[in-house]
Amino acid sequence: MSVIVEPDEPPGAHPPAPPLGGPYRSDTLPDPPMIVLTDRWKLERSYTIEVAEKAGAYVTARRALTEMEPAKLIDEVKAANVRGRGGAGFPAGVKWSFVKPVAGKPVYLVVNADEGEPGTFKDRSIMELDPHRLVEGCIISCWAIGAHVGYVYVRGELALSIRRLERAIAEAREKGYLGAKPFGRDFPIEIYVHRGAGAYICGEETALLNSLEGKRGEPRLKPPFPAVEGAFGAPTAVNNVETIASVPDIVKMGGAKWAALGQLPNDGGSRIYGVSGHVKKPGLYEAPVGITLRDLIYGLGGGIRGAENGRTLKGVIPGGASTPILRPDFLVHAPDEKHPLHKWHGKSEIDVPLGVDTMRALGTMLGTCCAIVMDDTVDMVEAARNLMRFFHHESCGQCTPCREGTAWIERILTAMVEERARPNELELLVDVSNEIMGTTICALADGATMAMLGFVKKFPEELRAYVKRSKAPGLTAGLGTGRALPVLGASSDVVPPGRLVLPRGESGTQRGGAS
Ligand SMILES: Cc1cc2nc3c(=O)[nH]c(=O)nc-3n(C[C@H](O)[C@H](O)[C@H](O)COP(=O)(O)O)c2cc1C
Ligand code: SF4
Fold this sequence. Notes:
By secondary structure, the protein is α/β, with parallel strands linked by helices. Among the domains are: 49-254, NADH-ubiquinone oxidoreductase 51kDa subunit (Rossmann fold, 3-Layer(aba) Sandwich), CATH 3.40.50; 380-494, NADH-ubiquinone oxidoreductase 51kDa subunit, iron-sulphur binding domain (de novo design (two linked rop proteins)), CATH 1.20.1440.230. The chain contains 19 helices and eight strands. It has helices at residues 49-54, 59-67, 70-79, 92-98, 123-129, 131-145, 159-174, 205-212, 241-245, 247-253, 255-259, 293-300, 356-361, 380-394, 400-417, 425-436, 444-458, 460-469, 491-494, and strands at 108-113, 149-154, 190-195, 236-240, 270-277, 283-288, 313-317, 370-375. The strands form two sheets. The protein has a four-stranded parallel beta sheet with strand order 3-2-1-4, sandwiched between helices. A four-stranded mixed beta sheet has the order 6-5-8-7, covered by helices on one side. The longest helix is centred in the C-terminal third of the chain and has 18 residues, at 400-417. The protein is globular.
């Protein structure tokens, strides 16, 4: 089912941003703010074990290891409906239930702290400000899935995160929370920090595993999925930092109660929202699952920077660079009562609650839930070129469509901004993007092309204007398909739903037009 937007809305049809200067009101933002995961961040020296323990750290791990059976823990995480916070949104409890011990092989927990998605900066703050929450989450998770060893794979540049996490691990070991008998339970658990070397692709779970094993950080073909054959060929749960840091609260509150913190079905809890770019108060904010981008931008983010001088919101990338851009002046078109977004029919895209499934239905992705806000001064073609340069640079090069295609996309966009694009170059851009989709080993290429098509879908006039200004002759025969460009303007046809939450991880891809 796809969406959804009416691209050619007459000017003024869109509900305007909240009145300038007035207080922002919202039905979904809790007042006072909901603080669960980040409750220790405000404490001085919150990263030390003394401070963290005084504020409740390790009480839940002690209870989990002394009183609770692994199956019960997995049930709680399932009941919590915690959707993976690393981008793909896969339910953590379901993933854990796929991790089955195999005779003669260990089970591993691997925490993904690579955090390379442009615009995303939440995991590093968890590790810097409350590393004990992550360590406690690791201990409980290891016990739940039967892992004696957990690896935290941290982006090498995150020096402070690494320092504080290593210190937290040492403190927990000294207290006997890690080691041979954590909390007296005869189940040895060790956590190791592994430093990555700063490649975006090493955030992809199988590339991460290769890198952890000392191999080139290149994604593996899936299946087998890591739950079956992960680190060192053994069953492995790979989870994001925020996902694992949420586990102590899930177990403490009980899965169902934690799930009810959120405002959407099948997408539970509270989470950390990031907002950067042209807002008055960029930063991280904890809030329930299901607030809107309007809440994030105009409520938590304080509104558009320079709004007093006429600056307005032009577009917002909802959850990291690979999530297609949204426009406040595009309206949800879901007249069918059965459509998942029917409730928001006629409302702005930024009024749809931020959830894994709602963003997917909107033709974008929740991703890492860290939004990049762009005001009306932004040249969207330049912005797209900037992102596509990143994806091209970070492609590991294994798959020809990704290696060559991302380069091609970047070249076309460069030709546009340098005003030397040929007349058919926009059609070529769409063609190349569509042809890449679904043909590669990992989701980097899908993420790049979905983001690219998002720009085409939402800002075709800007791309066209660049082509029009260019003075280059027509495309040489053989370049491009010469097909007409049915997609532009009919936005819902342009962007295939693409890879989103797939039952067994995010590597599979869906192709084709909106269904
Ligand atoms: C190119 C690429 C980069 C990724 N980078 C990260 C990352 O930095 N951190 C992360 O947690 N997940 C990242 N992911 C998603 C992981 O592959 C995986 O889905 C995630 O770590 C699973 O954890 P979760 O289920 O708790 O979200 C990336 C995926 C792709 C395709
Ligand atoms: S899609 Fe790109 S990054 Fe992913 S494996 Fe293929 S070449 Fe590497």
